[in-house]
Amino acid sequence: MKSTALISEIKPKAVGFSTFDEHFHLLDTSGVAKAIDNSPIAEVVKKSNAELGRLGYSVYEDAEYIGHAFKKAGHFIVYFTPRNKNREPMIPPVGIAN
C-alpha cells in the first residue's frame, strides 16, 4: 500500500494535524493538535526520521490519540485520530513506499 492510499484512509478520521518543515519547525496545526502544546511529537518525528524515510509512514500513540506521520516533499505531516481504547495497540504496516 502506498502512503498516499494510507493518507486517504486516515484523513477522513483525523481530528487534527501538525505539519513540520525539514528542520522540524512547526508550520501549521489544527484541531486537537492545537491543544497538544507540550506534545513531544516533533522530537518523536525527529528520532524516527530514518523509519519515515525508509517507509514513508510511522505511528505514535498516547492515551487519547494515534499520530500517523508521513514524510512528503521534505515536510512531515502528522494526522491525529482518536484512539479506540478497546483495541490492541496499532502496529505500523510493513513495506509502505513513497
Automatic annotation (TrEMBL):
Gene3D superfamilies: YNR034W-A-like (3.40.1840.10). SUPFAM superfamilies: YNR034W-A-like (SSF160683). Pfam families: YNR034W-A-like. This is Uncharacterized protein. It comes from Saccharomyces pastorianus (Lager yeast).
